[in-house]
Amino acid sequence: MCTGGCARCLGGTLIPLVVFGLLANILLFFPGGKVIDNNDHLSDEIWYFGGILGSGVLMIFPALVFLGLKNNDCCGCCGNEGCGKRFAMFTSTIFAAIGFLGAGYSFVVSAVSINKGPKCLMANSTWGYPFHNGDYLSDKDLWSKCQEPADVVPWNLTLFSILLVIGGIQMILCAIQVINGLLGTICGDCQCCGCCGGDGPV
Question: Which residue spans adopt a coiled-coil conformation according to this UniProt entry (predicted)?
């Protein structure tokens, strides 16, 4: 299989993940599906924009670069044109590394937020973080510590879990493209070609 074709598949997979990551992060600004009257009452991790920046903006560029390799074919991959295609594959590894860092950022922010729990109105009528070291994850009765916004615990937990999974998948896909891109750089765009003196694909 052509390494360019593999990159195209990875890029096509990343696009919907980017969209889901953006949507998940945007929904976090509306805890319980409602508009909050004071932005200071939102969890700090929401303002880190893990899904918007990490799994979104920093991931859209690698995805487009991967999709841009779709025009690579076996024609000329063992001739002079191979230099340009090898350079394109090498460039894709750089963007894959950027995407990996972005996805890693989103993954870490999501993991920290899940462990920390959401910011909410507590029983003492102050806003803060009532949970400690993820204790609410194994004890649903603790969720009652959050009085407002309504359903903020399952809301944040669900959306940050989605971002956590998306970030993990994106990291894996970018790591695959790093390997794929290095193979394309060293061996040429297409593995279907014969030796460098061959006339074309075999």
Answer: none
